[in-house]
């Protein structure tokens, strides 16, 4: 079962490929997505990494939470489920 991680504090210069490569040190990365601002097209400084197992996700949290990557300190934890948006 895949586990989705929230990753905050991502540098604006970080790419999805470099984020995926970094997290692959902890195990199999299913996907890595950096959230982009719709208007500017620039990174919003956070994203999500999907790890293939809960154990690998926990290892990634332990390895990368509070650690520096591309000059910024990452905040890594298990992503909360998305809330339904009201009015849509």
TrEMBL record:
User: Which InterPro entries did the record assign?
Assistant: Nucleotide-bd_a/b_plait_sf, RBD_domain_sf, RRM2_NsCP33-like, RRM_dom, SLIRP/GR-RBP-like
Pfam families, per database record: RRM_1
Q: Does the keyword RNA-binding apply?
A: yes
One molecular function GO term is:
RNA binding
> Which keywords has UniProt assigned to this entry?
RNA-binding
Q: Which domain of life is it from?
A: Bacteria
| Start and end residues of each RRM domain | 3-81
- UniProt keyword Transmembrane helix, yes or no: no
What is the protein's name according to its record?
A: RRM domain-containing protein
From which organism does this entry originate? Answer: Candidatus Wirthbacteria bacterium CG2_30_54_11
């Amino acid at each position: 079962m895949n586990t989705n991680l929230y990753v905050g504090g991502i540098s604006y210069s970080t790419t999805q490929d470099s984020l995926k490569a970094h997290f692959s040190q902890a195990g199999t990365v299913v996907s890595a997505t950096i959230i982009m601002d719709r208007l500017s097209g620039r990174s919003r400084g956070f994203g999500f990494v999907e790890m293939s197992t809960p154990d690998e996700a926990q290892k990634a949290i332990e390895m990368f939470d509070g650690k520096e990557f591309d000059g910024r300190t990452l905040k890594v934890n298990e992503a909360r489920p998305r809330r339904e948006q009201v009015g849509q």
